[in-house]
Amino acid sequence: MEQHSEPKSKQTKGHLFAGWNSPPNLVTYVRIVLVVVFIVLDMRAGRFGVDDTNMRWWAFALFVFAASTDKLDGWLARKYDQVTELGKLMDPIADKLLICSALVVASIHSELSWWITALFLIRELGITVMRFVVIDTGGKVIAASQAGKYKTLAQCVGIAMLLAPVWSMMSLSEQVVSWYQSLTLIIVLIALFLCLYSGAEYLVNTFAGRSQAHEERSSK
């Protein structure tokens, strides 16, 4: 009896590299390249941009632009039905590279305490490793939760505020700058709480899903 093979789109739908060259994924690759440029600008600008204020403003602008394109690739993926396993994996990785590099440089410049950066890095790198483990064992990549999306927003806002060299605005008093820095720290700490919470949520959902899948296989 003749066997009919499934359409190619169905065969490759769950493949990790299916749709690797789709427009949303290309946008994600560009974001990763921009991270390298951002690191160079931020490092050369010095602590709070004192060494080169203009370069610090460029680093701020590049960070805001790179962070905002996160919405672009997501919008493209949904609009043209090009959501891929690779995109679900690479999109948060691109976010992590941008966020983590900005945090590390801020700590190197003594603009942010290392313990805050360390907690961010432990969570972000830990979840990234978990994603690869899930893929390696044949599981599905779990998309970012609502808490994770709020975390990313808070991180981007807090880091953007940290990067902006508002002290260079001569019209602002020292008191205003001090209030601005305090508000920046509060937002960063809120982002840290959401970061740890969403990380725990991801682990719970991942293990719950794997346990359910194991029970379904055992019952067959």
Chain-wise SSE layout:
Layout: H1 8-12, H2 23-45, H3 53-79, H4 85-108, H5 114-136, H6 146-163, H7 174-219
Summarize the model shown:
The protein has 220 residues and is mainly α. The chain is built from seven helices and no strands.
Low-confidence stretches: 1-13
Total number of helical segments? 7
Sum up the overall morphology in one term.
globular
Largest sheet: none
Description:
28% of the residues are buried. The chain is built from seven helices and no strands. The two termini are 27 Å apart. It is mainly alpha-helical. It has helices spanning 8-12, 23-45, 53-79, 85-108, 114-136, 146-163, 174-219.
Keywords:
about 220 residues; mainly alpha; globular; disordered N terminus
